[in-house]
Amino acid sequence: MLMPLDKTWGLVLGASSGIGRACALAMAEQGMNVVGVHFDTAAMRDSVARLEEEVEAYGVRASFHNVNAARKPVRQEMVDTIAELTDGAGLKILLHSLAFGTLVRYLPGDGSDARLSQRQLEMTMDVMAHSLVYWAQDLAAAGLLPPGAKVFAMTSAGAVQHLPSYGAVSAAKCALESHVRQLACELAPHGVAVNALRAGVTLTPALRRIPEHGEFATQSARNNPHHRLTTPEDVAEAVVLLSRTSSSWITGNTIGVDGGELLAAGASWARDDT
To answer: Which InterPro entries does this chain map to (predicted)?
Structure first.
């Protein structure tokens, strides 16, 4: 049975741009109040302010915080804030969409002496994977993941594909998917569903930071059976759709939201413009 989302609360980690931004707006359109956590420079201040205004224009509450979601003290403060905002009722949606990781190759190459450092790898794993576990732990301990809540973590086909600069992020995505499966089993008795969403190639600020993104995006659009890239709005639609149920029976999965892109990768017919 599909349930309304109005008057519930959603938490978006990585809310200021790309998929996180689109999901915040989609939640608001459904009548959800939105807590947005982002970590940006002053240059993004106006953009985030506009986003907050757009969310509130749907007649819902918006509470945006420019803080580092991967830091323990910040997480603890935000859990207290969420408890106060929701009057202890907790969240309907937790979306983990943190995209901050290193894009340095493991070994020197292509005329560069740079190689991945231990600090860079650990930072990438902590922000893009392990932080999901810590947020779920703290929210669950505070009683803020009630039965029917949905936890989503953004992954990508990069978990199983190779790009020269994507190694550390790929490893983090693999770990993230593993964390999703474990959390799904441990939260099942509480009626909470946990899934990874594998978005197709999407032109977000995070993608544009990848050195090879131009050629990769062109090929992905050509391969996709829909002959276009995934948009943030495609992913936001999936988040809303999957959240409109009290059931926790769809859980522990990596769900493709890519228009069939991964299925068609490398297929000659998908690249046939005729």
So the answer is: NAD(P)-bd_dom_sf, SDR_DHRS6-like, SDR_fam
